[in-house]
């Protein structure tokens, strides 16, 4: 498939997703019957309304945003310790992130690069974990609500679980996002010590994108397994995880394409455009994760032949 046709397909996919999200707040039960004939989609739409996924996505996006910049501070402050060059990261950001957001992130990275203060590292870790753990705590409550189960664990245990899940989420997603950037450096280093890998070097370079996708899918599997107050089987959660990862990938690419080709955000929000774009992207991320959790809950209900009120 040519690059242009792929971008067009991604753009139209994003348009469908955008209008789908937009209409969720206005579709009544009667309209659902007219528009959607399949019971699965009807159940899913009812769940989105009943469990207030739009509102929860906005709250989670807010906490994700709060955790993003402390995490960025921590990561950039770590670069000098490993003698890493920041240029590949900036190139990747400018290539794949919407231009307004890329400019904002690039400015922050350049101002932070070279700082090796231990206080900066400590602040980055603590602030990122605190904000991200608030987001994962909301996800825990949302998954319990989707499964129609009560939280019986002690509050302290739930908060510790949220903190551990946040740490795992941050580490895995950071590696998954940085792998396409520094994957070539890693592969070249491995090839230097293991010459037999040189024959499959091109394959490894392509595989880093697949590995990145699989890592995000893996961390979502862990989230869907450990977060609820009920242990689910692999076959209960794998489809929701795959769906959430795919939806997030498509919506991210589609949204990036839209922002780069239609400059309405600059006209509407001016200098705040970068923050607004980032917040909307985080909203799509949160909605994708929550939607995957709802799909898992539907599969559990049907497997157990249990009535889950919508």
Automatic annotation (TrEMBL):
<feature type="transmembrane region" description="Helical">
    <location>
        <begin position="163"/>
        <end position="187"/>
    </location>
</feature>
<feature type="transmembrane region" description="Helical">
    <location>
        <begin position="119"/>
        <end position="143"/>
    </location>
</feature>
<feature type="transmembrane region" description="Helical">
    <location>
        <begin position="207"/>
        <end position="227"/>
    </location>
</feature>
<dbReference type="Pfam" id="PF03631">
    <property type="entry name" value="Virul_fac_BrkB"/>
</dbReference>
<protein>
    <submittedName>
        <fullName>YihY family inner membrane protein</fullName>
    </submittedName>
</protein>
<feature type="transmembrane region" description="Helical">
    <location>
        <begin position="56"/>
        <end position="82"/>
    </location>
</feature>
<dbReference type="GO" id="GO:0005886">
    <property type="term" value="C:plasma membrane"/>
</dbReference>
<dbReference type="InterPro" id="IPR017039">
    <property type="entry name" value="Virul_fac_BrkB"/>
</dbReference>
<keyword id="KW-1003">Cell membrane</keyword>
<feature type="transmembrane region" description="Helical">
    <location>
        <begin position="267"/>
        <end position="293"/>
    </location>
</feature>
<keyword id="KW-0472">Membrane</keyword>
<feature type="transmembrane region" description="Helical">
    <location>
        <begin position="234"/>
        <end position="255"/>
    </location>
</feature>
<feature type="transmembrane region" description="Helical">
    <location>
        <begin position="6"/>
        <end position="24"/>
    </location>
</feature>
<keyword id="KW-0812">Transmembrane</keyword>
<keyword id="KW-1133">Transmembrane helix</keyword>
